[in-house]
Amino acid sequence: MGTPQRRRSNLDYASGQLMTEFGLRHLLTIRELDRLHIEQILSTAEDFLPVLERPIKQVPSLRHITVLHLFYESSTRTRISFELAARRLSAQVVNFSVAGSSVAKGESLLDTARNIQAMKVDLVVIRHHSSGAAHFLSQHLHAGIINAGDGVNEHPTQALLDAFTLRRSFAKLEGLKIALIGDILHSRVARSNIYCLTRLGAQVCVCGPPSLIPVHIEALGAKVTYDVVEALRWCDVAYVLRIQLERQHVGYFPSLQEYADWYGVHEQAIKQAGRRVPIMHPGPVNRGVELTAELADSSQSLILQQVTYGVAVRMAVLYLLAQQVQA
After folding, report:
1. Which fold has domain 156-303?
2. Domain 30-155+308-326 grouped into CATH 3.40.50.620
3. Percent of the chain surpassing pLDDT 70
4. Which end of the chain lies in a sparser environment, N or C, as judged by fewer CB atoms within 10 Å?
């Protein structure tokens, strides 16, 4: 398959007008995006990236748009990244806190959604502990919905910012080998990345304890290994996933120390692999468990680049979806 032509954006910063036709009202899952949609988001993010380097880091593109951040789970990077993205586009931003809301009194997601609709919100960014929550909102609201992570399902914008980071580091993703290492079973980041990266022509391998590798993961287009050194020898990039400590009471492995020894990415594993590859991580890092502090902070780490590029990618997503709201 040949490389598709990118539908590059034409950003009119002066007027703040939306100049690009995207065609989708929601971003719920990577599976709904074809390669052209992904390329368009990445190209638009490339156009927005210089804004983040300017003295005045703001453009008037979404000054008539209201963005609600509806976070039912704790978050640092994703929430701040989306808020900065919206404010960089001059949108009106409303942050929803579960602790101080009627949700704490038992209000259902549907009732919350109906109240949101009555307030005429244009875009809703939702993170929820239940898989499918973003899809549910999209069926009950006229607003555009952006999935910022739902249960163990997907985290679309994380995969998009990861693809953007890789593209800026390697120029192209076609044929690039990425090893996803860690808790694949519970990782919405892993699922979205497999969909996104394989769609862009990359090769993906998953690695971790057998208890944390989902059955039939190969049907999604990823190869499987249970040997970290083998994964490091094979890949061009090691994408280390967070061990979700809140889920480990089930006993997926004997202890954190044993996990760190056998499946953690550390200097000894790098030496055995005989090569140093760039390292990525969605954060937060459990230092000393899935990844050592030395490697997380080393020159081969792309973790902070992921954070920076995340703002530009989320600006692109907000910008492209907003045109459907204004249409």
Report:
1. Rossmann fold (3.40.50)
2. no
3. 89
4. N
Q: Which residues contact 175 (CB under 8 A, 6 or more apart)?
A: 201, 202, 203
Report how far residue 52's alpha carbon sits from residue 308's, in angstroms, rounded to the nearest whole number.
9
For residue 116, the model assigns a pLDDT of 86
Strand partners, 179: 205, 238
In the structure encoding, which two tokens stand for residue 135, read together? 């899809």
- Domains of the chain, by residue range, sit at 30-155+308-326, 156-303
Alpha-carbon distance of 183 to 229, in angstroms, equals 16
Specify the amino acid at residue 31.
R
In terms of Cβ atoms closer than 10 Å to its own Cβ (0-12, 13-18, 19+), residue 120 is: exposed
Angle at Cα 185 formed by Cα 306 and Cα 290, nearest 5°? Answer: 50
Q: Are 110 and 288 in contact (CB under 8 A)?
A: no
Instruction: Kindly give the residue spans of alpha helices, DSSP state H, lying in 35-147.
Output: 35-48, 77-88, 109-118, 133-140
- 30-155+308-326 matches 156-303 in fold: yes
Q: Summarize pLDDT for 298-322 with one digit per residue, the tens.
A: 999 999 999 999 999 999 999 999 9
Closest CA to 272 of 236, 227, 302: 227
